[in-house]
């Protein structure tokens, strides 16, 4: 909580929006859990040859109605949570600029302009992501995963649920592992971006001196080196992302393959109905996102916390002379 001390004022003023947004998000998640059950009833009725056109229209209407309500409520939670995070970005950037204006001149002798500019752009964006998409992913990871697993476990088949979910925890651990690597490499990207910004600012500010001493070629060469370092750090970060996404997709696909094999045998043995199998596949599809979100939210929160610590160092700096 001490790391949030400089944004507590905003959080207190907007806590109602966040709470209401989380409630609406949970309602959306709950509505999504209804559709697989409707598909189950529809499939079983179709297989039993007792499905009438009236029932088809009814199920179709219910699915469309739920989709419309989900779309409307999704807009509402986006405006409440994501909108609040954008307001935080606006508020925090104004607060940072105002604080920098109050600091003594000696402070700027020890801080590079490019570094301060990086704080006002990348770091604030990272904090905004943590308190925007980070809140959404955390809520989905907790509520949707627990609710989906509970329904699969209670209403379909316990053994099939345990077998199908076997690869998913490994996916979460893999994302968390890669998240630590991403955190470290993201920090390097932030620092190289600060150097790049500082070099650009210095070159434009001192362009008259550069031209007077005919140093254009040297400046271009120096800028290219710094820019190349920024590229290498970004490529290092992207390589981790490149490894993580195929691994996540593979584990998700493995879970579906396991479900098709064991679930198909259960349908053949009449241990579960075809409708239950269809519903199970639908629930498994819903479960993929929250399992991924568990790993992603760790990464997003780590980035946001690292950036907030960097910003707190500026906010904790006080002027040498008070008015």
Number of DSSP helical runs: 12
> Mind describing the biggest β-sheet?
none
- Beta-strand content: under 5%
The proportion of residues forming helix, as a percent range, comes to over 70%
Distance between the termini: 30 Å
Query: What global shape is seen?
Result: elongated
SS elements, strand count:
0
In short:
This protein is mainly alpha-helical. It has twelve helices and no strands.
Characteristics:
323 residues, 87% helix, single chain, mainly alpha, elongated
Could you explain how this protein is built, in words?
- With 323 residues, this protein is mainly α.
- It has twelve helices and no strands.
- The protein has helices at residues 8-13, 15-32, 34-47, 53-102, 105-110, 113-130, 133-155, 158-164, 167-205, 207-212, 216-268, 274-315.
- Helix 3 runs antiparallel to helix 12 (274-315) and helix 6 runs antiparallel to helix 9 (167-205).
- The protein is elongated.
- The mean pLDDT is 87.
Can you lay out the helices and strands and say which pair or pack?
Layout: H1 8-13, H2 15-32, H3 34-47, H4 53-102, H5 105-110, H6 113-130, H7 133-155, H8 158-164, H9 167-205, H10 207-212, H11 216-268, H12 274-315
Helix pairs in contact: 2-4, 2-7, 3-4, 3-12, 4-6, 6-9, 6-12, 7-8, 7-12, 9-11, 9-12, 11-12
């Amino acid at each position: 909580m001490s790391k949030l001390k400089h944004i507590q004022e905003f959080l207190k003023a907007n806590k109602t929006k966040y709470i209401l947004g989380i409630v609406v998000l949970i309602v959306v998640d709950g509505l999504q859990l209804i559709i697989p059950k409707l598909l189950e009833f529809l499939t079983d009725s179709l297989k039993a040859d007792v499905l009438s056109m009236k029932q088809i229209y009814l199920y179709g209407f219910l699915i469309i109605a739920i989709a419309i309500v989900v779309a409307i409520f999704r807009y509402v939670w986006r405006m409440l949570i994501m909108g609040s995070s954008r307001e935080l970005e606006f508020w925090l950037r104004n607060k940072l600029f105002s604080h920098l204006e109050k600091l003594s001149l000696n402070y700027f002798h020890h801080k590079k302009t490019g570094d301060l500019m990086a704080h006002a752009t990348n770091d604030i964006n990272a904090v905004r992501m943590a308190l925007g998409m980070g809140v959404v992913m955390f809520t989905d990871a907790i509520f949707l995963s627990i609710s989906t697993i509970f329904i699969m476990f209670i209403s379909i088949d316990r053994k099939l649920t345990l077998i199908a979910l076997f690869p998913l925890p490994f996916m979460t651990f893999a994302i968390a592992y890669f998240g630590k690597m991403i955190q470290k490499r993201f920090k390097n990207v932030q620092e190289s971006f600060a150097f790049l910004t500082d070099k650009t600012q210095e070159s434009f500010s001192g362009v008259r001196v550069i031209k007077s001493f005919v140093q254009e070629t040297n400046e271009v060469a120096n800028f290219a080196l710094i820019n190349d370092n920024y590229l290498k750090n970004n490529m290092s970060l992207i390589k981790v992302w490149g490894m993580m996404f195929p691994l996540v997709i593979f584990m998700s696909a493995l879970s579906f393959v396991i479900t098709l094999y064991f679930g198909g045998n259960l349908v053949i043995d009449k241990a579960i109905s075809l409708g239950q199998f269809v519903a199970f596949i639908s629930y498994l599809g819903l479960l993929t996102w929250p399992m991924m979100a568990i790993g992603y939210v760790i990464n997003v929160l780590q980035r946001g916390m690292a950036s907030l610590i960097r910003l707190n160092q500026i906010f904790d700096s006080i002027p040498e002379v008070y008015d």
